[in-house]
Here is the input.
Amino acid sequence: MLLEVRDLHVEFHTRDGVAKAVNGVNYSVAEGETLAVLGESGSGKSVTAQAIMGILDTPPGRISGGEILFKDRDLLKLGADERRTVRGREMAMIFQDALSSLNPVLSVGDQLGEMFVVHRGMSRKDARAKAVELMDRVRIPAARERVGDFPHQFSGGMRQRIMIAMAMALEPSLIIADEPTTALDVTVQAQVMDLLAELQRELDMGLILITHDLGVVADVADKIAVMYAGRIVETSPVHAIYEAPAHPYTKGLLRSIPRLDQKGQELYAIKGLPPNLLHIPPGCAFHPRCPQAREVCRTDVPPLYTVDAERRSACHFWKETLDER
Amino acid sequence: MGRYVIRRLLQMIPVFFGTTLLIFLMVNVMGDPVAGLCGDRQCDPATAARLRAEFGLDKPVWQQYLTYMGNVFTGNFGTAFNGQKVTELMATAFPITIRLTVVAIVFEIVIGISLGVVTGLQRGRPVDTGVLVLTLVVISVPTFVTGLLLQLLLGVKWGVISPSVSSEAPLDELILPGLVLASVSLAYVTRLTRTSIAENTRADYVRTAVAKGLPRRRVVVRHLLRNSLIPVITFIGTDVGALMGGAIVTERIFNIHGVGYQLYQGILRQNTQTVVGFVTVLVLVFLAANLIVDLLYAVLDPRIRYA
Here is the structure.
């Protein structure tokens, strides 16, 4: 296994108390595999990713428990310097908003080339040539002429391609893409997603795709992990989950996708709001919003039940959920 | 860019005439310049009238202004009452003040930015709070207090430096005066850098730089600092003009015969030609500094383009 996150806990110390952002997350990614991590904002999907990358703001953040095994090493036990050499070289991250995530005062060529200068000790000139090569690879037209341009001179889609190129630069074995297409036009989203998937296949990388867009997931992911209030509530191969979700939350998410045959009807929405991370409800964190909640949900935290060889669900009543459709 | 520069230069013309006219009028309101010439005694009316005619003071103010401006454009800034040409005064005074300003700017850059970066990266820690309080003290205490105090302590009591600067004003004697002159701006530079650094540390592109596996030094210097210094550099740029004209107090304290000293003497003796001449040059310096800062802004931040 390329990456295995085991029982990860992350908390943020704020003035109002301790916000438990991640509460025992487990997931794994193999070489060449795409894991989609799904969930509302505040569900802990991005925080988990930042903990894996080692770019969590500490303080206020703190990893309070768990292991992050990457190529059989626990990343949390590495020193700061060792950890840094893993970043960029062996795992890389693509952020949501390429405009703010790229440095506004450095040319894209400088920012791409920097990877080779720092990690490979290349000369600036060679790094520049590499930058052009990378831009060609992510199909930016006229790469040679545009290598000296600044981020704001590119369109949104092109900027995100540059982010992808930067992540790919040193051919890492794991890429974490945090909502890579959310900030883009719908027409461009598919192109960028296709490019990402294509490069992933070529380089046989593991990919963690963080998203709340179920449409994107169906096309590219191999398996899905659904997060709620800092926990995994369901993991499953991608197709099984669309056919029959085993958790009421996943079911709610699926029902809230607008469909063509639904025209004129009211769009379904999960009742209530995501929980306050300072006061996560006892028992199953989803119970206040769950249409199926019973007494036991208010008191007992559901473990991850085994649905079948590849599926897990953290619902006391996963069987009913599965059968009910 | 070229068109922008031309437009800016054209805009300077009304500003230039407006400020000089204002100064000219103010100096005229100050009182009768001839009266001051004869010291405490009343001037002999015949001599006074002769002097007035010689310097053109018997003509209306607007006419005086026009004559004066006409002369300025041929490089003639007039003659002080003691017979010295104002241009000669400038030739000795400006190099000294420029040297003093350079010393002050170096202090602002080296100390101000360093302290700003350190405190900005250590927000809320004791270093940060300590420096913040210190800058507040420096900003609150007037320059003449800081200047006189340091002069007394370092110059007179401990004899580390000479309390008065010699007439050639060599660089090493200007270190303390430069620090005094820079002090308030230095405190502002520190605070500005601190805020800017603190704000940018949370920026997305800094997170990206960290995620790229860059060493911390490189993240701070190449990514964080480049962006954070844009407002600081513009501040320092505009401060050049302010420091050159604002050195009056510092130059008085340390007896430096620079622009501030000449201006002070000029005002004291109601020496119209000297005062207006020096201020005119300072206005030009100020305008030039502002233009350079605006152009520098475009160089530092590629997102800004002037059309």
User: Anything to note?
Assistant: The interface with chain A takes residues 202-205, 207-215, 218, 222-223, 226-227, 230, 300-303 of chain B (CB under 8 Å). The first helix of chain B runs from residue 2 to 29. Chain B has two domains: 2-73, 90-300. The CA atoms of residues 177 and 254 of chain B lie 7 Å apart.
